[in-house]
Fold this sequence. Notes:
By secondary structure, the protein is mostly beta strands. The protein has helices spanning 76-80, 259-264, and strands at residues 3-5, 16-25, 31-39, 44-48, 54-60, 66-68, 88-90, 96-97, 101-104, 107-110, 119-120, 133-139, 143-152, 163-172, 176-185, 189-190, 194-196, 213-216, 220-222, 235-236, 248-249, 268-272, 281-287, 293-299, 303-307, 331-335, 350-351, 357-367. It is built from 2 helices and 28 strands. The chain has a 9-stranded antiparallel sheet with strand order 12-13-14-15-28-24-23-18-21, with no helix packed on it. It has a 6-stranded antiparallel sheet with strand order 1-2-3-4-5-6, with no helix packed on it. Strands 20-19-22-25-26 form a 5-stranded antiparallel sheet, with no helix packed on it. The longest helix is centred in the last third of the chain and has 6 residues, at 259-264.
Amino acid sequence: xxxxxxNDDETTSNPITISKADYGVxxxxxxxxxxxxxxxxxxxxAIITYGGRITSIKAADKEGRKENVVLGFDNLxxxxxxxxFFGALIGRYGNRIAKGKFSLNDTEYTLAKNxxxxxxHGGLVGFDKVVWTVxxxxxxxxxxxxxxxxLSKDMEEGFPxxxxxxxxxxxxxxxxxxxxxxxxTDKTTIVNLTQHSYFNLSGDFSQLILDHEVEIDADQFxxxxxxxxxxxxxxxxxxxxxxxxxxxxxxxxxNAENEQIALGGGYDHCWALNNVDKGYRSVATAHHPETxxxxxxxTDQPGMQFYSGNFxxxxxxxxxxxxxxxxxxxxxxxxxYPDSPNQPNFPAxxxxxxxxxxxxxxxxxxxx
Length: 368
């Protein structure tokens, strides 16, 4: 049964709606709902409460054809199976923590090693594998919002503190999707939240993302070792395949003879974004020349992981009947740097009971 929540004024220039539907029941009996945020301009975003996952973003191309541009599944059972975090909210700590350990106030905390010797994306049962609570929806003539919350209890996955997290997705009339992350804790802890959608702006998941043009406003990136843990130093992008300061095709550098490219199997690195002192600003764009679809990323975060889908291997089914091949999607994960709790030179990720974690990222869609 689908319930529509619409503007009272249907004559507004950009009527925006939210609809709700049952999505399924998890293996342990939790009900999952799906919310669809849509506007007149042609953007439609579907979000499920399991993992706060974006399951679909339908965006028009330059001819007005509307197609889904994010990788995902068409049923809950597939999201519950092992998958590469399709569309998920990531926490408590996005990206890797070396050897599954970190120290706070002279106390060492041990986490699951779910990525070789390292902790990845919050552990075995991170924020991507829980059912979020719907705090409410809000619609007006310029935006529609869905607010989700999750209480991560003290020592869940090895992290200290009861952390109350809310994430608010807001679709605006200008075809931008805001993701507002907020969190509080009752004990000093670490927090680094992000959104893990895989984009393919062609709308055809049988096509690879090598023909996308990417631009990243970053003079430096975060080099990694053989287990994809930062070396602790930043490196200049000058003269490397990591220089996206001017837009270029992903194909230009992804197979370059470069040690860091070899270690990542392509792009799987964090860029140290410029102008972090300015706070919320435009940091990246991705453009698909054939369809004209473009995403602009705005954030207040110091880093962004650009991941080119190197570990996709053709085994996961796509709703169109095919499978997701290597490099059939890319991620633009705004965040703090990987392994920051163990890297004293990196920006801090500590959250105390006196502080509030609050950060905003926007994905703005348009054609050119």
